[in-house]
Specification:
This is Arylesterase. By secondary structure, the chain is of the alpha/beta class. It folds into 2 domains: 1-36; 38-222, Rossmann fold (3-Layer(aba) Sandwich), CATH 3.40.50. The protein is built from 9 helices and 5 strands. The longest helix is centred in the first third of the chain and has 34 residues, at 3-36.
Length: 228
Amino acid sequence: MPQAETATLRKLAAPALAVALAALTALFTFASEAAARPIRIVAFGDSLTEGLGLPKTQAFPAQLEAALRAKGYEVEIVNAGVSGETAPQGLMRLDWSIPPGTDAVIVELGANDMLRGQNPDGTRRALTEIVRRLKAKDISVLLAGMRAAPNLGADYAARFDPLFPEIAAQEGVLLYPFFLDTVAGDRALNQPDGLHPNTRGVAAIVAGILPKVEELIAQVKAKGGAGR
């Protein structure tokens, strides 16, 4: 091939090569930033998540983040708890409560529905829709279960208690069966109202749920999320 034609081809190829190199650089930069940033988990719930009666530094999201970081995980736990909220109310604010870049969500709702004796069918519909919307955004989900108080009767419990494991199984998401496991009914682990855990109670919740949250983080990593 004549030298002039070779030079012309090189000139024509140079811009395309530059574009390809720039694209590769951007891709590797994006991948590096994704791997370097903390895994973002939103704790989406009611007063049990918000930490009613406690300093924010001792609320569930803060204690969970500290426990995970102590185990070497680079995580950020966002507190998206609102006191007094029911599952249908949570559904109403879902879209603006989960910020862009969220890798996973812990859904902790239903306690207020139960305490008010609301129809479990409404709770089921709202929680199912919350989980489905999160899945549609490719966000990993851990559903935290709740159990009916004994004073509501066996019939109510028979309708309320199973909805959490049933939703988790139906939607294929992780389940922590009872958010207040080992804490409910223990005066030493609750504030004077008997409903909200104190600092020690939150620590007990964190210790119980921690293995499931580690499973949640593993799901994020398997999908190519931020790394440990």
